[in-house]
Design brief:
This protein is α+β, with helices and mostly antiparallel strands. It is built from six helices and 13 strands. The radius of gyration is 22 Å and the shape is elongated. The mean pLDDT is about 90.
Amino acid sequence: MRLDKFICKSTELTRTEAKKVLKNGEVRVNGDVAKNAAMQVHENNTITIGGQALTARGSRYYILHKVVDSICSNVDEVYPSVLNFLEVDKAFDLHIAGRLDADTTGLVLITDDGRWSHNVISPKKQCQKTYRVWLRHEIPDENLVDLIAKFEQGLQLQGEDSLTRPAHLKRVATAELVDDECYKSEVLLTITEGKYHQVKRMFAAVGNRVVGLHREQIGEIMLGDLAPGEWRELTVEEIALFL
């Protein structure tokens, strides 16, 4: 963990205030004065401010049902950050483990445990993520088996050197009339990686277009009946899944 983050997690100081005490030489790590805010520290380090030993508070873990037109960022931009929905102290000291686009809804995991979130998003962990996808064009019955096979074999995305990892596609509903000109199919897609706009690009690679995207599950953690904008703490069992 960064030293300035450790200080914030151990005191009531803001990140700016933490950097100030560091600059003033008030912080010691294992007896040595430390001024580098980005210095990496660990649980077995002895960290003091003015001679007083610091102990970091326990990590926090939340699940949130992201609404459309919100962003997975620690700052508000054109759209508000999803962290605004969390009614907890120092919400903006947390970070999002696995981001979603502004127009995508569904399951978001939020924490201040960097190692835990790494286990969620690292491609090496191959954590499964399931999305409900609404498509502009119908998937005809005669094309379904072939399309499922293509997703299992991996798709070549524009600008990528390698194929996508095997993905599981399941059609949920046949075409539904949306308006006078737009039809769509509803599918579930499970992937184990998180390339830029990956789901949208995968369907573009097979000649379709995503018109709605909703994440339902990450690993064994499911969104369940959380309403849009609602959140809760993860259970001990859910947290343990990525420790």
